[in-house]
Design a protein that fits this description.
The structure holds two protein chains of two kinds.
Chain A: H1 2-46, H2 52-55, H3 58-70, H4 73-105, H5 107-122, H6 129-136, H7 140-164, H8 168-176, H9 181-219, H10 224-233, H11 237-265
Chain B: E1 2-15, E2 18-31, E3 35-39, H1 46-54, E4 61-66, E5 69-70, E6 80-83, H2 95-99, H3 101-105, H4 111-123, H5 139-152, E7 157-161, H6 169-186, E8 189-194, H7 197-203, E9 206-211, E10 216-222, H8 225-229, H9 232-235, H10 241-264
Parallel strand pairs in B: 3-8, 3-9, 6-7, 7-8
Antiparallel strand pairs in B: 1-2, 1-4, 4-5, 9-10
Helix pairs in contact in B: 4-5, 5-6, 7-10
Classes of the chains: A mainly alpha, B alpha/beta.
Amino acid sequence: MKQEKSMTETVYRQYRAQERVRTFWVRLTQFSLLALFFALWEAAARLQWIDGLLFSSPSRVAQLLLEKWQDGTLLVHIRVTLWETVVGFVLGTLLGTAIAALIWWSPFLSRVLDPYIVVLNALPKVALGPLFIVALGPGVLAIIATTLSLTVIITILVVYTSFREVDPNYVKVVRIFGGNRRAVFVKAILPASYPTIVSTLKVNVGLSWVGVIVGEFLVSKEGLGYLIIYGFQVFNFTLVIGSVLIIAIAAALMYQAVAYLEKRLVSHRL
Amino acid sequence: MTAIELAGVSHVFVNEKGAFLALRDIDLRVRRGEFVSLIGPSGCGKTTLLSLISGLLVPTSGTVTAFGEPVGGPSGAPKVGYMLQQDYLFPWRSIFANAAFGLEMLGRLDGKGKQAVSELLAELGLAAHAERYPHQLSGGMRQRVALARTLATEPDILLLDEPFSALDYQTKLQLEDLVWETLKSRGKTALLVTHDITEAIAMSDRIVVLEPNPGRIRSEVEVPDAIRQAVPFSARERAGFQELFHTLWKHFEDMEAGGEGGRAR
């Protein structure tokens, strides 16, 4: 008995040790790749293998970002863009889910709207950008509208499909106890689709970034998208590259945060 | 006293491809406290029959009454409980919340209701698992939770739609005994749908054999007292069990032969 226990423990310890070694090598390689990339870039710029005016260099980007951080303007731009993005994916998910619920509620409406949703889904939504600017004015509203046009349609499609694919036996359980259509939705359909809705949130983070950056390209006076287009216009590519780096980091962090939230929210399910 | 009565019940299903007759002219009476099994090959409308009695479906013609009242009416608490082939516990609810679901739906989950659910879980050997979630339990335990959920609303009639079919053999035998004892001790009326002839004989007072295409009653068999009074597990060893099995088996063989003959024509 004791012998058995020590044997399993040994095997497990060995397994853990191997796993740690593997993880170490993966992390080391990941870090080296990144360091190598920046080192090569810096070297290429200094040795003038690439045009420093167009492709800048890590040191110049870092210096510019530091300056912008110290004078406080970078934080303002980051804040504006983050705010628009969060509003875009949260509102998009909520609105999309609400419309999906409405369509689930009325099979008639579902059949009526079907071709329109198909067309809207196929349409590249950023093409609507100029129309939003005309309709809502050149400001935050137009940016958020552009973002919502990206997130809402896909949310409707995914969430509605999830509503329809809920095991009919769960619906039967609710109806056995005298539940009406409303009870079926609240007690079975919605909670069963909850993981899908939360994972849609994750997809919408990515789409929301696209919508916000395109929206800022078109109209804004501030935000990271604005910095990119401004840098492009005044031929300051250090600013363009710096902004792209900030976006990459912010988008990755936001995605991780939502992924963590998803794990927490759907913890005790299969 | 008659618990369930079906009079001249026929049911037609319809979809884009057409309509077909699922049940034809069913007349069936179940007395209060009686345990009746419905057996028959697939396609004989067993599940449809249960859906009609539970009020989930309305018959195309004929009447279905429970204790003299039409089923599915707005008379408040359902008198009919329904157990499905699988437990269909909600994975996002704890075991307690699942067992309490029926009472919650009926707006009766007050202090007394919660107490009743706890007692029921304890009686079915699930007290220690009340705060766990369905995926942490075995199939047999989950089906016991489903039984608790059904019994909590105190229905007078229980409809059992092959509730043991998804379980392994040992669990199935144990659960048969548990369900049988629980229903007998409470004097419930039960209607069991099953594919398993031995299960039907071991559990019931009376067996109704259904015939497919369209679903109709072929014959009814009373189970001898000696078998009826034993718990299902030991009922299988009582005298007369094998004879009854062969009688019912013969029905299935004849139906199969008849069906093939029909197709050959």
